[in-house]
Amino acid sequence: MDTTGSLFMPPQNSTMAAEIDFLWDFIYWASAVFFIVLGAAIVYFVFRYRRRRQGELTTGLAHNMPLEITWTLIPTILIFFVFVWGFKSYLKLHIAPGDAMEIKVTGQKWFWSFQYAEGASTVNELVVPVDKPVKLLMSSVDVIHSFFVPNFRVKMDVLPNRYTQLWFEATAVGEYDLMCTEYCGTGHSEMIGKVRVLGEREYAEWLESAGGMGEGMTPAEYGAQLYKNKACNTCHSIDGSKLVGPSFLNLYNTQQMLTNGPPTMADENYLRESILNPQAKLVAGYDPVMPSYQGVLKDQQIDALIAYIKSLKE
Fold this sequence. Notes:
Largest sheet: 5 strands, mixed
Strand content: 15-25%
Mean pLDDT: 88
């Protein structure tokens, strides 16, 4: 059982987590000690200098230079100490090692997509090797998001029209929560994912298989896999229930009522256009919130998703 967590923090699973927690604990306990000391002093002075008789005046209080120097110097030294400590940790957090592997991260309503240099791509699942520094180059295609992995103690805003970056080195194999911590719209609470940390050999195997395009699967089976991996399931159900977008069940070859045009048939062309340019034909009763998957999905993946949608009949 991992005992590196605390009341406030989850277990430490990156090389920087222990240092950040140590600084956090120092500030927390220093604040607690000063709170107790000052609270006790206030209670003592209230009791010591209380008015005992009607009309009694307190004695005149003289200036106390040693006391004033003491309560000025001690906080100043502590603040300077914490500043230097925190600044050194800040630099470590923001300067990635030269041998860090780079992964491109894109945030958009309401999912994360990851592009690897080897050609693989994932949605809502960042896969990295253990004991290897990883640098994330991040941007947003719509609004401000914030990339946060509590177990790694890393967090950074993800901005439109600008790159931000962070790095980490995972120290243990496992799965860790990934979330957006900047309110980005009605689906903000669903913008969650996982960081999956693998051993070196397992990561190499995953990287090799991730570049494949559903080998050994029928298009519909591959589409079913993409439906989950590409986060389609966060907005589209397959059981007829209404979510953010229309259900995929019985969608193919049915008439769709639109808010910005005449009714249209949900054929292959409509499905493809809705994936790549979702604002072109807006289904009545749904908000125009779906992001474009242009550049996120390859043609073979789009074809597989369409095949999967076509298979959802009852």
